[in-house]
Amino acid sequence: MNYQENLKAYLDGELSPADAAALEAALTSDLDLARELEELRSVTAMVRTIPEPVPYGLEQALWRLEKLDAKPVAKPLWGRWLTAGLVGAGAIVLSLTLLFPDQTFSKESATVAMAGSKEPNDLGDIHFNTDAQSSSVVKQAAPSAPSESEKRTKSFVAKPSAGIREPQSELDTRPTPAKESKKVDQPVNLPAPGQREERTRRVSEKPLENGIADANVNSAQSRFKAQAPIVGTPLKAESHLRNIQPVPQTLETREVLETKADLARLVHAFKGTINIGQPKGSPMVATITVPENRMEEFAAAVRGLQRQQQNQAQGDSSVSLRGGGAGSAGGMGGGQGSMGGNRETSQLVAPKASTAKADRGTASKSSFASVKDSKRKVTFQIQIVPTNE
Amino acid sequence: MKTPTTVDELRLARIDIGTLAREHYDAVFRFCCRRVGADHAADAAQETFITAHKALKKFRGESSVTTWLFGIANNECRRISRKERLAPMQLEVDVTTATVGQSEGALVDKQALYEAMKRLSDEHREVVILHELDGLTYEEAAVILNVPVGTVKSRLHHAFQHLKRLLVPTVEGVK
Fold first, then answer.
1. How distant is the Cα of A74 from the closest Cα of chain B, in angstroms?
2. pLDDT tens digits for A216-265?
3. Which 11-40 residues of chain A touch chain B by CB within 8 A?
4. A62 to chain B, closest Cα gap in Å
5. N or C: which end of chain A has fewer CB within 10 A?
6. B110 and A49: CB-CB below 8 Å?
7. What is the model's pTM?
8. What is the rounded end-to-end Cα distance, in angstroms, of chain B?
9. Complex ipTM, two decimals?
10. Are the beta carbons of A388 and A292 closer than 8 angstroms?
11. CA-angle at A193, arms to A187 and A194, nearest 5°
């Protein structure tokens, strides 16, 4: 054994007991080894005299550690992406709102399109009417849609044209738009005077008189009326509509997007068209065109939807649905009276709008509010127009 | 209350990193000061405890807390030395604070000691500091240096042989 190499370890107590005993035995007989051990002991003692540094910075270290503990736990990666996505979506919606202040249903309408399980081409073309008084979503059953500008003006012309009958009697002669506006009866239960009253009249009265549900009454309507008078429709349709169950004319819900999506799916299943719009200051109007021979079936489906929403409303007070079967109720008075005059049109209009969007100041503000508070109570007025298809 | 010596004991005792820093900061600071100097020692020590705070959950607890902290501090000192381009082993030479004695001879001996330490190779100086100044055992020094225990023993033997050759006249003089 090389005792010299073990001297330092022996001094430090790092030798095994056996090696230490062997070294101690060698030290008693080897004076040079013992002298070297003493020199190592002296050098070790000298090295250990090096002064220790005076520590500082403990308080700063504790402060940094406390700050580190106070930091919230970092979000997982998916959480960061989700947050970034939500912020981005919000920025896009806000930008669109500022760019198109008059288009109040951009977000909701887009969601309706997304809610459908099929491609837009399968459901029909969906486009937006940017007219401030007739912002709406129009789904046309015909896949070959006209140009965008034509859609805006003809979207409500094409639908009734499908159900228009050829003039068969004297009653088919229609009045001019000017005369027609004078002949319009005052609404029975219109809630607001002035412009809102005028808009409500357009929505609720003219279709009753003309026999069509036309939510967007504008210059295009007068052209349509001149081309395709439909007053005096055949009694065949009257007899058919007399037998159908009254369709809930008003859907009041807080789940606007879901209701729109449900209606869109329902109408699509019946190969019909739906037009959802909201003239300023008026409740949301859903003008639905379904084949005449399926009116009864469609009415039953709508009642099913109504019952479904009622069940949800019982579990969740945030959803309420009313007006079902009120075809002869007070709110239905205007429409019912008109139906007596022209029974081909099953026009169901609620006279009172409970939508929270009724008193909005500007379109941009209202659009932002609808995004901000999507749980507001919104009333859908449902107008059903039969077609020959 | 017994101070926890392993990470497992720390977990059981639920000692937070603040308590750990209060108990071990001085040792970590001295460890860092001997490697990067007093100017960077505080930064190195603070970074050591911040790293320890992040790595506490991952540590397997195979060594003592002191060894674990010194291992982190050693890596931190190497990082700072590379970043600041520091000379290895920043031993502070302060001849006015001699502890051997207050005599003039003692001050001279102190300076001779620092000169001898500077002449050691980095490996030898490192193991001398770990064992003689930081107070680690051969095994603990081997863990920090990631070398076998026999290597630590061998390096110490050669380092002290070199120091003895440089310092024996001084030692004899002191005697």
1. 13
2. 334 334 333 333 333 333 334 343 444 444 555 677 777 777 778 888 88
3. 12, 14, 39-40
4. 6
5. N
6. yes
7. 0.43
8. 44
9. 0.82
10. yes
11. 110
pLDDT band for position A193 (cuts 50, 70, 90): very low
Closest-CA distance, B116 to chain A, in angstroms, reads 10
Q: Which of A65, A69, A71 to mutate to test the interface with B (most CBs of B within 10 A)?
A: A65
- List the structure tokens of B173: 């003089």
Chain B residues inside the 8 Å CB shell of A60: 42, 46
Chain A residue with CA closest to B17: the answer is A65
Q: Would the CB atoms of A39 and B30 count as touching at under 8 Å?
A: no
C-alpha A139: how far from chain center? 17
Search chain B and give the residue with CA nearest A59: B22
Nearest residue on chain A to B175, alpha-carbon basis = A42
Residue of A134, A289, A156 lying closest to A225 (CA atoms): A156
- The whole-angstrom distance between B82's CA and the closest CA on chain A is 22
- Nearest 5°: the CA angle B43, B49, B51 is 100
Tokens 């209701």, located at residue: A259
pLDDT at A84: 83
Cα separations in angstroms, B54 against A339, A371, B42, B70, B108: 76, 42, 19, 15, 45
